[in-house]
Amino acid sequence: MIEEPMSKPTKPASTRHKSSTEAVHSGRDPSASYGFVNPPVYRGSTVVFPTLDALTARDQPYTYGRRGTPTVSALQEAICKLEGGDATFLTASGLQAVTTSLLAFVEAGDHVLITDSVYQPTRHFCDTVLARLGVTTTYYDPCIGSDLAALITPQTRVVFTESPGSQTFEVQDIPAISEIARTHNLWHVTDNTWASPLYFDALAHGADVSIQAATKYIVGHADAMLGAITTNTRAKPQVLRMHGALGVCPGSEETYLGLRGLRTLPLRLERHFRSALEIASWLEARPEIERVLHPGLPNDPGHAIWKRDFTGASGLFSAVLTPAPREAVAAFVDSLEFFGMGYSWGGYESLILPFDPRSYRTATKWEYDGQALRFHIGLEDVDDLKTDLEAGFARFNAARQS
Ligand SMILES: *Cc1c(COP(=O)(O)O)cnc(C)c1O
C-alpha cells in the first residue's frame, strides 16, 4: 500500500480563510519537520553556505540568524495571514514594533501626529528619541475624526492611531483618518494590540502598518515578550530597511511561544470578550463605580464606531471609582483574590491596574476625580470574579466610612 504523501499542495498566497482556521493552519508545514505538527525551534546565528558562489549570491532562504530563521518565518507568515498584510516583521517587544515602525518613516525636520490616548511608552519615545532626532510630535484628540486634517503641516509624515486607547478606550474613526492620511500622502501606523488581528482588520480599514504587542494576546500566557509589524505593499520596503538596519530580532523561544499561543487565540479571545463585557455591564450597575469605559457597552461614546468597524472586544477595559480616599482604593485592590496588580495584559489571568491619565495627557482633559482602574478579565469563572470584586467593594465601602 502506498503511504499518503506528507506534503500537500501549497495554498495560493491570496487565499485567506476564516481567522480561526488561519490561526490553526498558517505558518506550519508538517512535511518540512518529519510530520511533526509544530515547527521546531531553530536557534542560530551562523548559517553556512556550501560554495563561494552561494555565499556571494546570498540567495539562500536564510543567511544569518538575525535576519530570520524558519521558526521566525512561520510566525511571520501566520500573523501576516491574520492581518491580511503583505509582510510581517517580528520584534523583541511590542514597544520595539512601535519604535521601529515610527523610525521607518521619519527623518530630521519631519512631524508626526500621535493620538493623545496612545500607550505611554510610545509617547515617551516620541518625546525623547524622536525629539532628539529633530522630529516633532503633535498629540491629537483621539475622537478628532476628519478634523485631523487641520493639524497636518507640510512636514507631517505619519499619523499614529491606537483604537481604542489601551487605558481610556476612546474608539477612533480609523476609516476617516485613513482617508485623510491617503489624501495628504502620509503613513498611517496603527497599534492594533487591543483588538488583535481577529477583531479589527486594520489594513482593510486603511492603515499602512498594523502593530501587535504580541506579548499580550498572541503569546497569551504572560511568559514572553514579542512584537509584530505587519505592512501593506506600499509600506513594506521602508519597514524592511529599518528593521534590518536597527538589528531588530526576536528570541527563538519567544517566537515559538508566539506560535504556540496563536493557535488558541480565537478561542481565548472569545472567552475574554464575553467575560469582560459581562463584568463591564455588571460594574456599570455598581454604586461604587462612576463610569465604565468599554466600547462594547451600548451607552459608551465609542459604541457606534466600534460596532461598525470591529468584530469583537478583548478582555481589557477601564472603570472609574466614585471619589474616595486612597486608603479605600487600597482596601479594594490590595486584597483581591484573583486580580493580580501589574503591567501588561493578554494572559489567561485577570489583572487590575490603577492609573491616572492627568499625569500624561496633553491634548485632552480627563474629567474624573475618582480613581481610574484598568481591568483585564482573564479566563477564570465570571461568577468567581464577581464574588472577588464584590468583596473588594465591601472593603472599599467600609474603609470609606471609617
Ligand atoms: C503592552 C503594549 C505595548 C508594548 O508591548 P511590550 O511587548 O510590552 O513592549 C504596545 N502597545 C500597546 C497598546 C500595549 O498594550
Descriptive overview:
By secondary structure, this protein is an alpha/beta fold. It has two domains: 19-263, Type I PLP-dependent aspartate aminotransferase-like (Major domain) (Aspartate Aminotransferase, domain 2, 3-Layer(aba) Sandwich), CATH 3.40.640; 265-401, Aspartate Aminotransferase, domain 1, CATH 3.90.1150. 36% of the residues lie in helices and 15% in strands. The strands form two sheets. Strands 1-7-6-5-4-2-3 form a seven-stranded mixed β-sheet, sandwiched between helices. Strands 8-9-12-11-10 form a five-stranded mixed β-sheet, covered by helices on one side. Helix 7 (196-199) links the parallel strand 5 and strand 6 (209-212). The termini are far apart. Mean pLDDT is 95; it is low at 1-12. Residues 93-95, 98, 119, 162, 166, 191, 193, 213, 215-216, 225, 227, 344 line the site of pyridoxal-5'-phosphate (PLP).
Compact description:
The chain is of the alpha/beta class. The protein has 13 helices and twelve strands. The chain has two domains: 19-263, 3-Layer(aba) Sandwich (Aspartate Aminotransferase, domain 2); 265-401, Aspartate Aminotransferase, domain 1.
Number of helical segments with 4 or more residues: 13
Class inferred from helices and paired strands: alpha/beta
Number of domains: 2
CATH architecture classification of the largest domain: 3-Layer(aba) Sandwich
CATH topology of the largest domain: Aspartate Aminotransferase, domain 2
Q: What are the secondary-structure elements, in order, as H or E? A: HHHEHEHEEHEHEEHHHEHEHEEEH
**CATH structural class of the largest domain:** Alpha Beta
Q: pLDDT under 50 segments (min length 5)?
A: 1-12
Shape: globular
Supply Rg.
Answer: 22 Å
* Beta-strand fraction estimate: 5-15%
**Share of helical residues:** 25-40%
Order of strands across the main sheet: 1-7-6-5-4-2-3
Distance between the termini: 82 Å
Biggest sheet record: 7 strands, mixed
